[in-house]
Specification:
CATH topology: Rossmann fold
Shape: globular
CATH class: Alpha Beta
Number of strands: 8
Radius of gyration: 21 Å
Largest sheet: 8 strands, mixed
Strand content: 5-15%
Low-confidence stretches: 294-304
CATH superfamily: NAD(P)-binding Rossmann-like Domain
Distance between the termini: 59 Å
Helix content: 40-55%
Structural class: alpha/beta
Number of domains: 1
Amino acid sequence: MGLLLTTPISRARRLARRVTGDPRSPLAGRTVMVTGASSGIGEATARACAARGATVLLVARRAEALDRVRAEIEAAGGAAYCFPVDLTDGEAVDRLVRRVHAEFGPVDHLVNNAGRSIRRSLELTYDRFHDVERTIAINYLAPVRLTLGLLPAMRAQGFGHVVNVVTWGVQVKSPKFAAYIASKAALDVFGRIAGRETYADGVAFTNLRFGLVRTEMIAPTEAYARLRALTPEQAAETVVKALEDRPVTVDLLSARLLELANVVAPRLTDLAFSLADRAFPDSAAARAGSSGRTAPEVRSPSRD
């Protein structure tokens, strides 16, 4: 997957804890909300946070799966609470915020992990504008609404942290991911600007630009079986380190190099990605989800 890169300040914070010999995690005694906590990165992150002494608020649509995660965390000696919510329902998100504030007070850390990935070429998307709408709904609008709901209390208490799980695609800009990467790029930019506005209030924002992680979300794409990927547990360790150290961005060295190449030699990278795009065609799941309609025939204007 490549080398994960953080900021010098975050590395200094980790070094300071080693020097002082403080064995406690900065998450001990904190309240951490994790969305998409019923499986994958979210579930593994919730477990890791609870193991470090945090009270974890589990948010996802599937109530039974959340109950399972909660029970297993409690059996291991941790503290967790379930909040079954469809995050694309704006009113439900607002109710979640009110309930959490009433029962727990300000949330210290929010991990915006819930999301949807769609790998489908533009050729198979002409009649599927809802692909764009549903990725925006869960990958951008939902986390922004939840963040805006929790942010005033964070600022009022003088401490808070929002971690956005995005993708290295915002730097690499891989073909067949236009809808998905665009929605994550919007969240990435929102978090960067929000972090500047809330810096003086003690509230930090971190963008985690992950590469491939082997979760249920990538299972339908056959091409991924040939590529190396992190396990959810490995990804969760990166999330926890980000929660503890509060860096601005965590990304991959390979992604930074490709991002630079996109600036220095844009047409050359266009050629390289075009060739790679042809080598990794749409998955069977992507083709099955499309009507197969190609671009409509457009008549040239008459020149008579």
